[in-house]
Amino acid sequence: MSIKFDRFASVLFLTVGVLFIIGSKHIANSSYGSVVGPDIFPLILGILLVLLSIRLFFETFIGQRQNEKKEKLQYKPFLIIFVATLLYILTLETIGYVITTFLFLFVCFQTMERTNVVKSIIISACFSGFVYVLFVEVLKGTLPGWPIWF
Q1: Alpha carbon separation from 150 to 48, 98, 132 (Å, rounded)
Q2: DSSP characters for 125-144?
Q3: Are both 102 and 47 inside the same structural domain?
Q4: In terms of domains, do 66 and 23 share one?
């Protein structure tokens, strides 16, 4: 990518991150029956986005000194992950968190690197199961469970 584009993207993501943080302050602190409120996730995402955008901004100054090579844009992987994200959003409530997240991660891992299918399956299954157990059992939050037919 070009340094100019990276700088612009870092400022844009910094703005979005700050807006996430500000917006999360306007969400209720807790929901009925849940220790973790709906404001926590957007707040954490906003903070993470701000930190990563600051890092990207400073890396553009370091990258400016290095030789810049033109890279060919990869449209096919972008479109696959974009469609997978849309399907993830549309099927999360219907299919449930664990299955939908597993399928989404598996598709993304295989799109980025087509080697070692078994490794992708194991990582996707462990991550989706771990996050579900951590959020629902430990933090007493709520996530879409298993599908009705399961």
Answers
A1: 35, 12, 16
A2: HHHHHHHHHIIIIIS-----
A3: no
A4: yes
pLDDT in tens, 94-144: 888 889 999 999 999 999 887 788 888 999 999 988 888 888 888 777 777
Is it the case that residue 71 has pLDDT exceeding 80? no
95 & 107 share domain: yes
Whether residues 133 and 83 fall in one domain? yes
C-alpha distances out from residue 83 to 53, 123, 134, Å: 25, 21, 28
Listed in sequence order, the residues at least 6 apart from 21 whose beta carbon sits closer than 8 Å to its beta carbon are 42, 43, 46, 47, 50
Same-domain check for residues 53 and 78: no
> 26 lies in which domain range?
1-71
pLDDT at 70: 65
